[in-house]
């Protein structure tokens, strides 16, 4: 058993000191190397919560059974070296309050520069404003986490298997209520109201062996992760496709794209965006699906699109399937030569490529009250734009300046974020000792190492591993291939 205490104080810029404290106890016991029990409890404190909400109690416990030590295996099955079952359950916490507010349990006021007309004069003056409404009840975000798994070692420890199933229930997530109305004239606070579920499984298989001086290994792993919002405070909507509750965390919402408008008649025959769009569409602009239907004949059945494309036509367009991660590593060494390779990949991932690389001339809406910037650098991605001559083969909308119609979040810009990558390859050679002993060193090894040597991805040109899921006005990362070579010396 052990008792632990730690405290940290962080000062950033002009902020008041952020102090975190942990007071923990850990206890573990095993009997005959077969039966295991562990437990831990921790009281964490953070001074940026209300004084009566600063401390949170978190805990975890686990049980283990080394089944291979039981006589019915140990005395009868020689090729099983270890077979352990384990289960853990715990409550964890996250002090993310700084992400949403600075001492948000206290009501604060500030000043804002604004245009006011005083008498016949017009100029800018500072006006007092109320910051977001205080929430004295904010507390730690929490999660109840369960894991059940097994660790197996077979054939003189040459073959190992590790398998896990986990289920994590997150609650008291800080979110803003969706059903709050603007009557009070200031922003509402975040509250501990959100609930989310993550669950999935992981499997790793490893084999290592040798044939004389030739030593080798290979390991493969795969995992699947599903998630969903169990509760979010949301407005009632005539379009059920807009609801977040029940959908995977990270789902991308937007309009469903139907290609491009072919001509003026096609524009006239289909619905148009109506929110915040100064000009209507033209041939070559993206055509969006009118999802919301209305009852035109009074029989109680919706039978016709309403002709308008607005917030009620938004639907899930990406990241609504369980994520699958997979990879393998393998290598060998023989008489000083060595090789190691790491491969990795992801399935069921989507990325939003609606950014200035693809629509530099269209403009980028940065949000936060910053107006649309209609002119920008044009990149190679604008090639194969729509024109009357390329209408049948075009892959991007018509070229235009400051066109807000084509920069809406839609399925047109949602691309596959799946990829398979040769993540790392290293080749090395350790010089024979009789070559280097005169240098009075224990060993010398030369090596060449390459990262991101090859990537097979659904979207070309950008690094799919770090490309954000829901992209705004910033630029994505380009793929960087890195080659290192060097010498390591053991003294």
Search tags:
globular, 491 residues, 49% strand, two-stranded antiparallel sheet, mainly beta, single chain, 14-stranded antiparallel β-sheet, 4 helices
Protein described:
With 491 residues, the protein is mainly beta. The chain has four helices and 26 strands. It has a 14-stranded antiparallel beta sheet, with no helix packed on it. A two-stranded antiparallel sheet has the order 6-7. It has a two-stranded antiparallel sheet with strand order 12-19. Strand 1 and strand 2 (18-31) form a beta hairpin. The longest helix has 6 residues, at 264-269. The two termini are 39 Å apart.
**Could you tell me the radius of gyration in angstroms?**
30 Å
Report helical residue fraction: under 10%
Name the average pLDDT: 86
Largest sheet: 14 strands, antiparallel
Q: Secondary-structure element sequence?
A: EEEEHEEEEEEEEEHEEEEEEEEEHEEHEE
Percent range for β-strand residues: over 45%
* Terminal Cα span: 39 Å
Helix/strand class: mainly beta
* Anisotropy-based shape: globular
> Spatial order of the strands in the main sheet?
1-2-3-4-5-8-9-10-11-20-21-24-25-26
Q: How many distinct beta strands?
A: 26
The oligomerization state is single chain
């Amino acid at each position: 058993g052990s008792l632990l205490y730690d405290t940290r104080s962080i000062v950033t810029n002009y902020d008041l000191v952020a102090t975190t404290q942990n007071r923990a106890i850990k206890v573990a016991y095993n009997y005959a190397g077969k039966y295991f029990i562990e437990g831990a409890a921790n009281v964490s404190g953070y001074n940026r919560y209300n004084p009566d909400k600063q401390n949170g109690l978190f805990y975890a416990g686990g049980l283990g059974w080394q089944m291979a030590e039981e006589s019915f295996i140990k005395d009868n099955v020689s090729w099983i070296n270890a077979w352990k079952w384990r289960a853990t359950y715990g409550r964890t916490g996250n002090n993310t309050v700084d992400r949403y507010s600075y001492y948000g349990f206290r009501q604060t006021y500030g000043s804002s520069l604004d245009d006011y007309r005083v008498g016949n004069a017009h100029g800018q003056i500072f006006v007092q404003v109320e910051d977001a409404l205080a929430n004295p009840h904010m507390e730690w975000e929490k999660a109840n986490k369960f894991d059940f798994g097994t660790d197996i070692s077979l054939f003189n420890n040459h073959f190992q298997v590790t398998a896990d199933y986990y289920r994590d229930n997150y609650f008291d997530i800080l979110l803003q209520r969706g059903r709050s109305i603007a009557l009070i004239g200031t922003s509402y606070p975040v509250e501990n109201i959100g609930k989310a579920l993550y669950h999935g499984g992981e499997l790793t298989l490893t084999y290592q062996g040798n044939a004389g001086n030739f030593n080798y290994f290979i390991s493969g792993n795969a995992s699947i992760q599903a998630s969903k919002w169990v509760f979010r405070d949301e407005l009632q909507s005539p379009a059920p496709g807009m609801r977040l509750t029940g959908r995977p965390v990270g789902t991308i919402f937007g309009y469903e794209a139907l290609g491009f408008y072919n001509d003026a008649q096609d524009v006239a025959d289909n619905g148009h965006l109506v929110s915040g769009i100064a000009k209507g569409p033209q041939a070559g602009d993206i055509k969006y699906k009118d999802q919301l239907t209305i009852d035109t004949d009074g029989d109680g059945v919706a039978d016709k699109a309403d002709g308008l494309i607005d917030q009620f036509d938004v639907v899930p367009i990406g990241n609504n399937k369980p994520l699958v991660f997979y990879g393998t590593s393998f290598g060998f060494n023989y008489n000083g030569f060595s090789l190691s390779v790491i491969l990795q990949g992801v399935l069921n991932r989507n990325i939003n490529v609606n950014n200035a690389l693809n629509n530099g001339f269209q403009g980028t809406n940065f949000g936060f009250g910053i107006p649309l910037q209609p002119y920008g650098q044009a990149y190679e991605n604008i090639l194969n734009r729509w024109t009357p001559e390329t209408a049948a083969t075009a892959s991007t909308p018509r070229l235009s300046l400051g066109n807000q119609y084509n920069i809406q979040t839609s399925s047109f810009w949602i691309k596959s974020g799946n990829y398979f990558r040769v993540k790392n390859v290293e080749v090395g050679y350790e010089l024979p000792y009789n070559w280097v002993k005169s240098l009075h060193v224990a060993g010398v090894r030369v090596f060449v190492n390459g990262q991101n040597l090859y990537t097979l991805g659904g979207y070309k040109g950008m690094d799919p591993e770090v490309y954000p899921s829901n992209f705004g006005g910033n630029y994505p990362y380009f793929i960087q291939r890195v080659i290192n070579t060097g010498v390591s010396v053991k003294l």
